[in-house]
Amino acid sequence: MIRISRIFFPFIHKKFITALSFMICGACLAQDPFISKLATNLYEHETMESKEKIYLQTDKSFYISGELLWFKSYVVDASRNKFFSLSKVAYVEVLNRDSKPVMQGKILVQKGIGSGSFFIPLSLPTGSYKIRAYTNWMKNFGADYYFEKNITIVNTMKRNQDTLAQKITSFDIQFFPEGGNLVDGIASIVGFKAVDENGTGVNVDGDIVDQDKAIVAHFKSGQFGMGRFEINPSASKQYKAYVRMDGNQLTVANLPAVLTKGYTLKLVSDQNNLTIYTSSNYDGDNRPLYLLIHTRGLAKYANSLQLDHGKGSISIPLSTIGEGISSVTLFSANQQAVCERLFFRMPSSLDLSAQSEMEEYQTRKKITTHIHLNNSQVDSSVSANLAMSVFRIDSLQNEESPDIRSYLYLSSDIKGNIEHPEYYFTHKGGQVESAIENLML
Predict the structure, then answer these.
(1) Which of 178, 343, 372, 402 could bond 189 through an S-S bridge, CB–CB 3.0 to 4.6 Å?
(2) Are 65 and 153 in contact (CB under 8 A)?
């Protein structure tokens, strides 16, 4: 039994946007040149340092030695996620657990698209491998920008020499105040993430305790070991987290230090708008602040934000902000960055379905698949570059992770490992919205 595992629809061909994309209040621009300077400097920086992303689709995730490993590459402009023609060659390699290449090759890239394959040698031992892709231009920005994904290779001719994984005996937890800082007397949201020795999220719960042993907050992790809680901190106190994993193993961790003076940033969104709140504990603070929002280096919004007795807020349409991850940065009246926060807007996509003409086929009979565009609101003249992988259903094959949408709009824009990034795109409801909020914190 086989099935069509996934249809990729990464790019809708539209007119390439060359103008700087941001909203600036005309009156503010005339009154304060710093707002214009913020967006202009960002634009000039991104123009000088054009960056690429590459995504590699493999035909499956589990292979037997002696099989062919097929792949297709997509090279895009890192800012706009549009096909990029800067590089003409892409490099693909398969690495073993020691990060040493066991297969290497290069493929021709035309208008951002390339494809190729590896023959998996019979000499490779059974184990987990990593397939990596990059261009020569990407070497200028370090390996953090390379594409990587895990695959499994089984050699039926060799006995597996891998030892059993050791039982996890410890975990690590980190705390992240919203906006970057805890400030004396200002209630703030604090995000946290707990991982085991392999970097995998673990379930934890615990209490925040001050120096007088009073419990000031309780927390419990959600999806992938992440969560958040609210605390009203005091600079005169020190806070510790007493953390339990699986209800028994106890770890004690320090919370970040509390600033005596400073600013906080808080984001609240609904279906239509993003509201940004800021607070200051400087006495009688009525000074203007500055706000810059950019998506992958493209400025989307720049404006001033007036404080009234240390409080200020502004609401902007979500349509103003780019799809994927955006950075929201708050600048002080002295034009210094004081707070920053990530925000995620779910990207739109084509809704496609595929159906074969028959349910059963004889050996080597030609199969025709019909692909349908289900989006009634999408112009039927829109074109897309598609790829399809077909493999046998069994207990060893997994859906590709990350898929192209979760990679371009999520994984590639955050340093570090994101557990199952496709989860945030394939599930819906309040639980997923809470999980993506925890991830952004």
Answers:
(1) 178
(2) yes
3-state secondary structure the chain: CEEEEEEECCCECCCCCCCCCCEECHHHHHHCHHHHHHHHHHHHHHHHCCCEEEEEEECCCEEECCCEEEEEEEEEECCCCCECCCCCEEEEEEECCCCCEEEEEEEECECCEEEEEEECCCCCCCEEEEEEEEECHHHHHCHHHCEEEEEEEECCCCCCCCCCCCCCCCEEEEEEEHHHCEECCCCEEEEEEEEECCCCECCEEEEEEECCCCEEEEEECCHHHEEEEEECCCCCCCEEEEEEECCCEEEEEECCCEECCCEEEEEEECCCEEEEEEEECCCCCCCEEEEEEEECCEEEEEEEEECECCEEEEEEEHHHCCCEEEEEEEECCCCCEEEEEEEEECCCCCCEEEEECCCCCCCCCCCCEEEEECCCCCCCCCCECCEEEEEECCCCCCCCCCCHHHHHHCHHHCCCCCCCCCHHHHCCCHHHHHHHHHHHC
Instruction: Say which residue, 29 or 56, is predicted with more confidence.
Output: 56
Residue range 194-203: average pLDDT? 90
pLDDT tens-digit map of 168-184: 457 899 999 999 999 99
Q: What is the pLDDT of residue 15?
A: 32
Cβ neighbors of 47 (< 8 A, separation 6 or more) are none
Q: 258 versus 378: which is more confidently predicted? A: 258
Q: Give phi and psi for 102, each to the nearest 5.
A: -110, -15
Asked if pLDDT for residue 26 goes beyond 60, the answer is no
pLDDT at 35: 81
φ/ψ of residue 26, rounded to 5 = -60, -40
Give the rounded distance of the alpha carbon of 398 from its chain centre.
21
- Tens digit of pLDDT for each residue in 91-125? 999 999 999 999 999 999 999 999 999 999 999 99
247-272 per-position pLDDT tens digit:
677 889 999 999 999 999 999 999 99
d(CA 71, CA 92): 9
Residue 258 has a CB neighbour count (10 Å cut-off) of 22
**Residue 356 token pair:** 């074969």
Amino acid at 364: R
How far is CA 208 from each of CA 31, 195, 205, 234, 313, rounded to the nearest angstrom? 45, 19, 10, 13, 29
Q: Read off the amino acid at residue 407.
A: Y
pLDDT value of position 34? 82
